[in-house]
Design a protein that fits this description.
heterodimer; A: 295 residues; mainly alpha; two-stranded antiparallel ribbon; 11 helices; 2 strands; 1% strand; globular; B: 395 residues; D-Maltodextrin-Binding Protein, domain 2; MetI-like fold; 3 domains; 17 helices; 6 strands; elongated
Chain lengths: 295, 395
């Protein structure tokens, strides 16, 4: 009897330590959730009273202490569109090449390592690079096109990776079936592989939009302006942008305390963009997951 | 025809595929092209001359010595391996103390001559004046010919980029500031990150997971400038109050903000690593009577340790390169940090804060690009380290 009794004690101790460890882990996990909600809640609470129709549709006035953030919203929109026009095609085509065409193991490995390295490059280094290449060497000056190219190169790795993963998740039997029916490789990709991978690719693109709209360091020296009396007229003009606007009015405005309200409002708009982007991505993901299951 | 189109498309795709590699190459070329210019820049501000009396045995002063002389921290040539003689600092604006306006001429045409005279007359003088006022038969000894040396940048302990006559670009305080803030951030976020990763990978049921995963994604999606703003209005005052510090903008504030920002990276990578543990291994452990917790720390963690290491290295990489949030909460004092609760300045924050004011092509501009190159090399080596760690795992 005794040994079994002994074992039972060990068992109890084991279970107790498991309980403590698991309790601790779940506590920390929910603490992380709490951190997120504190950040979101704080900015939503403080920013909600600032948001109004005027805030979203008017230009800043009186040294950034009143008025709205309309030019910054427009600027960010331009930058998102501009960078997407560059990064989406290149990123998706890269992903297709990596997953569907490249057969040389060494080449794939090299490109993948380079893509990983690119995703590790700090955003401020992209800013320096963009300034040196697009603004100075190519002579575009501080402009929407320079900022868009810089942001596009920065978001490439994310798009390439998500496209590759989306394509990888498609079973080879679909490709073989299509090829066996006499379709060429290109036809197979266009008619079979891409339509199936489409939802996941789109999710990656949406997430990259979220990232681009919040980046500050890459646009600091390539496009962003502190204040512009009018909206940009061409792609060679500077523009204001939401993240840069938030940075400027919360650190170096003429009257930082008086523009705090504006800062809360700007932060809230940025948070709402991120929330929308994530919600949209998740909704798309689950919608298409259901659809695929039904088929 | 169809074959031709197929080939054409494949070619187009290959070109797209090479864009990221090409970008890395371009980043290296452009960063280093601007950066290496620093070592061809003169130590003393461009367009100016620094000269001493011809009898003075001192041949060269380092930028730090020049600053000490002009700030009157060094007042005797003996401290600079010269004769025992008081230093007389002379700037162009001091000229009117020695000569009347008539003597200098209506259009200051006699200024070069007078400077020449003064340098010749005063044995202890050190004169700093624009090149255009250097007389043709200049008799002073010019000591400003040297260019900035790599050892001064990489070993320099001071960062005074706008100091005149000689700016000082020393990497050490910025590098230490960056490391202090980043390592502090990892120490803070590592326990959290690993715990949440374990919870997600092994403990949580599907419903909890489906709730936690989007939360972590959202945490990763919040722009760094919003983190910085939150840090500025909430964390900084909180730290200042609770720790009773003169300023809340400290390395610690930066670490706290960065810790939150690094969490998603650490959690996601570590969780993915733990999920690759073969089911058979886990089940064998459980079948031998181990509890789930024993299985986690005796089987799963040792098995996925290389993945967890990758997570940590990636987290450090994120923290080192992070710019805006750190810029907004660390107080930006470019001195060698002596405590965790003092303002510090990191490399990315320095670039972001100063590039706007640095004239393009000047020494300051080039120094900031060199900082960017250093930052790039640090993060590149971390990326390669991760690559190495995870390639080892596959074997």
């Amino acid at each position: 009897m005794a040994p079994i009794q002994h074992l039972g004690n060990i068992d109890k101790r084991k279970r107790a330590s498991q309980k403590i460890a698991f309790g601790f882990f779940s506590f920390l996990s929910y603490l992380v959730v709490a951190i997120l909600f504190v950040i979101l809640g704080f900015i939503i609470l403080k920013g909600a009273s600032v948001i109004s129709w005027d805030f979203l549709t008017q230009a800043p006035s009186e040294g950034m202490t009143s008025g709205g953030i309309f030019p910054a919203i427009v600027g960010t929109l331009y930058l998102v569109i501009g960078s997407s026009l560059i990064s989406f095609p290149i990123g998706i085509m890269s992903g297709i090449y990596m997953n569907e065409y490249a057969t040389n193991g060494k080449l794939i490995r090299f490109i993948r390592i380079m893509t990983n390295n690119l995703s590790g490059v700090p955003s401020v280094v992209f800013g320096l690079f963009g300034m040196s290449l697009f603004v100075s060497t190519l002579g575009w000056g501080d402009s929407i096109i320079a900022g868009s190219f810089t942001l596009a190169l920065m978001s490439l790795p994310l798009i390439i990776r998500t496209t590759e993963e989306a394509l990888k998740s498609i079973d080879d039997s679909f490709r073989h079936g299509s090829l066996a029916l006499g379709a060429t490789k290109l036809q197979t990709i266009r008619r079979v592989v891409l339509p199936m991978a489409f939802p996941n690719i789109i999710t990656g693109l949406i997430l990259s939009i979220g990232r681009v709209s919040g980046e500050t360091a890459p646009i600091l020296f390539t496009v962003a302006a502190y204040f512009l009396p009018q909206l940009p007229k061409s792609i060679f003009d500077q523009c204001m942008a939401l993240p840069y606007h938030l940075y400027v009015i919360s650190t170096s405005g003429t009257d930082i305390e008086a523009s705090r309200g504006m800062a809360y409002g700007t932060a809230l708009v940025l948070i709402v963009i991120v929330l929308l982007v994530n919600l949209l991505a998740n909704a798309l993901r689950s919608y298409f997951a259901k659809k695929v299951k039904m088929n | 025809m169809r074959k031709f189109i197929e080939k054409l498309v494949e070619g187009g795709l290959l070109i797209s595929g090479s864009v990221s590699s090409f970008t890395i190459l371009l980043i290296i070329v452009f960063l280093f092209k601007e950066a290496t210019g620093l070592f061809n820049s003169p130590e003393v501000e461009e367009g100016y001359v620094l000269a001493v009396n011809p009898e003075n045995p001192v041949e060269h002063l380092s930028p730090e010595q020049i600053m000490d002389v002009f700030d009157a921290n060094i007042t005797n040539w003996a401290d600079l391996n010269g004769k025992n003689q008081d230093i007389l600092v002379f700037r162009l604006s001091d000229l009117t103390n020695y000569y009347t306006e008539e003597e200098l001429g209506d259009e200051f045409q006699y200024v070069p001559e007078k400077i020449n005279e003064l340098i010749h007359k005063e044995p202890g003088i050190i004169a700093f004046f624009p090149e255009q006022y250097q007389a043709e038969n200049f008799q002073g000894k010019i000591i400003s010919g040297a260019t900035i040396k790599p050892s001064e940048f990489f070993g320099g302990t001071k960062w005074y980029p706008t100091s005149t006559p000689a700016p000082i670009f020393g990497l050490i305080p910025l590098l230490l500031g960056t490391l202090l803030v980043s390592i502090g951030a990892i120490v803070l976020s590592l326990p959290f990150g690993i715990a949440v990763a374990i919870y997600l990978a092994e403990i949580a049921n599907t419903r909890t997971r489906n709730f936690l995963k989007p939360v972590i994604e959202l945490l990763a999606g919040i722009p760094s400038v919003v983190y910085g703003f939150f840090g500025l209005v909430v964390i900084v005052p909180l730290i200042q109050k609770t720790l009773n510090l003169p300023v809340g903008e400290t390395a610690f504030a930066g670490s706290v903000v960065l810790a939150i920002m690094a969490l998603p990276t650490i959690i996601t990578v570590a969780e993915d690593a733990m999920r690759t543990t073969p089911r058979a291994m886990k089940e064998a452990s459980l079948a031998l009577g181990a509890t789930q917790w024993q299985t986690i720390y005796k089987v799963i963690i040792p098995y996925s340790i290389s993945g967890i290491t990758s997570a940590v290295v990636l987290g450090i990489g994120r923290a080192i390169g992070e710019t805006m949030a750190v810029l907004m909460v660390t107080g930006n004092a470019a001195v060698i940090p002596t405590s965790f609760f003092e303002p510090v300045r990191t490399i990315p924050a320095t670039i972001a804060a100063e590039l706007g004011e640095a004239p393009a092509g000047g020494a300051h501009y080039q120094a900031l690009f060199l900082l960017g190159a250093v930052l790039f090399l640090i993060t590149l080596s971390l990326s390669i380290a991760v690559e190495y760690i995870s390639s080892k795992r596959k074997i």
